[in-house]
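User: Lipoprotein. Structure?
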Amino acid sequence: MFLRLPVRLVMLCSITLLAACSSVQLAYNNAPLLLQYQMDSYLDLDDEQEALLAQELRSFQAWHRKDELPVYAQTMRQWAAKLDQPRIFTAQELLEKQQQFQQALLIVAERSAYRLAPLVLTLSERQRLQLQASFDESNAEYAAENLNNPEAASAERLERFSERYEDWLGSLTQEQEQILAGWLAQQPSRAKLWGQERIERQKALLQLLANAQDQPSAQVAATELHNYFQSLSRYRVAELQVDREARLQSLAELTASMLNSMTDKQRRHLQQRLLTYAGDFEALSQ
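Assistant: Predicted structure:
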């Protein structure tokens, strides 16, 4: 939804979404148009707002292409080099990589806050109400998919996790399938808490947009947006925040187990994937 759009540009060239793209360069080059289309669908932008948003997205991508993509390419090549020979991965190592990724998102959040602030100042009450309606519709879909049928939600979660690992490793071995299924079976369902977190984040964003109309300052709006984006690394639902570190540790341990059970074929598949993305980033940065 709208609250995730500012970081999607970098996510289109990150390890979480690239695996789903048939052409990284095509996806990245068209990201501004995609983001503009999505934001227009949520807010029904007028012609002046569309022109403003298009200009800001182009400027944002030009900065990201020049300053950030070379860093991503270098990181991918460094990770790939470590796969020349079989090795043992640790949960701590993976947590450090996750922190690198988080830092990259925070850099993007700061820059996107500056770029989106002028648009925020132009949003009308009608557009904020339309965004609220979009949130309500999305929340109803989330409840139908995740809360009303726990068994189906559990099966979907297993499928989703399997696909993520297969994107990077290729077909999973029977051992890896058992590792993943066993780990998921031990994880309590937090679907209801995640639903509450979605709502709390949406409320905070809608309040920010309303406040921007009372204090029509681009600098203030940029600061508030930046603070909001940074707050997304924490949880507003206390129970989720309390368990955050334990969940990250557990997920890192799962990923370490999956990587340490890689076959030579999977290791080469992962290495080639990283090198391919590095090449795409280097081409896009030119």
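Residues 2-285 form one domain. Residues 47-81 form the longest helix (35 residues).
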